[in-house]
Amino acid sequence: MTKASLICNDKNNIDLVLEPIKGGDTISTLTINELIEASEYKKLRINNGNVKNAVAELHDVLKPLQDKNTGRTIRYQVLERVDAKINITIEADEMGASAEITSAQGGKHLTAKAILTAAQAAGVKKGFSKEHLIQLAQLAAKEAPNNQVELQIATGKIAINGKDAIIKPLVESAQTRILKPKKREDGSVDMRDLGDIICVNVGDPLAKKVPLTKGVQGYTVTDTPLAAEPGNDIELVAGQGTNISSQNTNILVSEKVGLPKLINNGMEVDEVYKIKNVTVSTGNINFTGSVIIDGDVTEGMKVTASGDITVGGFVESATLEAGGDITITGGIIGRKHDTDKTQISNMTMSVNIHAKGSVYAKYGQYAQITCAQDVRIENQLLHSILDINGRLWVGKDGKADGKLIGGYTKVGSSVNAGMIGATAGSNTVVNFEHKILKFKNDIRQIDELLKIESDKTNELKAAINKLKKLPKDKAKPELIAKIVPTYQYHANKTGEILNEKSSLEDNLQEYMASVYLEATEKLYHGVELIVGDFNEKTRREYGPSKMIYHERKILIDPIVNT
C-alpha cells in the first residue's frame, strides 16, 4: 500500500510525500485532505492544485508496476504558511481610519506595533487609539484562519468653535429680586425685604464681560489641521450711572448710589428715591430716576418716575407711570366693576399702570395696564384691560400656569396662561391689533404714494403718445427726449412702490400667522381671539389648546404634550 506523509520543507512549508507501492487501498484527494485535517498543519493554506497533481502522478507511477513493487517517490508542496494581512481604509472626510486584518493561516500574527506601522505607511498620522490597536491584534490572533476582522484604529478631532463673549450680571435687578423673594430661616419668604439688596453703592461691580474663546483646533487622521472659529465679541456697555473699571476693562462699576437695571450688553444705575408707603400723608411722587416703595401705594395716589418703579406691597386704585419697568411684589387691585352689564373695553379702571418697559406683578384685578414691552402676572389676572406691545405671560417664570379670566387685552406677540376664561363663561377678549393696524396704515400710505406715481406715469405716457402723433412739420423730438427719462423714472418708481407694498402684505400675513393664544391647562368658553378682520369665540370647554390664525380662519388646536 502506498505511504503518504506530510513533511516540512526548507521554506517551513509542508510537502506531501508519496511512496508508491502497488496494491492495497487507493489514495485519492479525499484521502490526502483527511490526512491534512488530522495533522498539526490543518490551519495552513492548502494548495488543491498540487494535491490533485500528486494524486495524478501517483496513478501514473503505479500503473506500470507489478503487485507489491515500489515506484519512485512523489513530492509536492501542498500546505503553505500564510502571514496575517492588513488593509487600511481612510474615510472620505479623513476623520477616521480602520484596519481590516485577514487572519494568519499558520503564519505570523500582526502585533499592535505592526498594525500601527502599516497604518502610518498608508498615510494615517494622528488620532490613534492604543487600546484599539491592541484589541485588534488580539482579536485577529484568536480569529479562525483566513477570516476578516475590522476595527477603527484612529479618529480625527473635530474643531471646537470658540464661545461668544457674554455679559454676566453681578447684581440682581429689581424685578429679579422681587420675583425670587428672599427666604427666611423658617423657609417662608419675605416679600417686603427689598432694602439695600437691590441698591448699589459707588464702585460696586455691576456686570462682568466673559471674553470670547478662540476655540480648539481639530485635525484629521492624516494630520490636516481643522481650524476653529473664534466666538463673537460684544462690547460691555456702560449705561447711565456706570463706568468701565479702571482696574479691569471687563468689569462695569457703579458711579452712584442707586437702582441697577439691565440694558443690552450692560447695566445702568438710576438715582433712587426710597419711601416706605405712598399715602395721603406722603403725597404723590414725581421723581427723575427710580422709585423704591417698601410697602403699598394706597387708593388715589400717583407715582411717576423716569426710571423703574419697584413696589414691595400692593397697588390699590392708584396710578403708576414709569419710564422703565414696573415691578410689584404684591397685587394690582382696582375697584370691582359689573362686567356683565358693561362692556369691559368701555370701562375706566381705578388702578392704572403705565410703563415704557415691562410690568411684573404677583396678581392683578380690575386693572388698566399699558406697557411698551411685556407683562408678566405670576398668579392670576382678572377682568383687566391691557394694552401692551409685547407678550402677556400669566404664570411662573418658564411655566405659564396662571389664570387669565375676563378682560380685554391688546397684545403684540402672544398670550400664555394655564387657564384662560372661566367656567362661568366670562368674556375674555384678546386682540392682536397693534402691529396689524400699523401694517395697514403703512400699506395705506404706500397706496397713496402709488396713486401719485401711477397718475404721474400715466400723464407722462399720454403726453409722449400725443407728441408722437403730431405731423412731421409740428413734431417736437427735443421735447420727447426730455419727457421720456422723466416717464421712465416715475415708471420705475411705481414698480419699486409695488414691490414694497407686496413685501408689506407678505410681512402682515407672516405676522398674523405668528401670533397665538395658548392655554396650557384649560381653555373655557367665551374666549375670543381677534386677528385683524378675523375673530372666533370658544363655545365650549377645551383641554390644553392653542388658538391661531391660519388661512383666513381662527383655529383651535389641541396641545399634545410629549
Automatic annotation (TrEMBL):
Residues 86-265 form the Flagellar Assembly Protein A N-terminal region domain. Pfam families: FapA, FapA_N. SUPFAM superfamilies: Cell-division inhibitor MinC, C-terminal domain (SSF63848). This is Flagellar Assembly Protein A N-terminal region domain-containing protein. It comes from Colwellia marinimaniae.
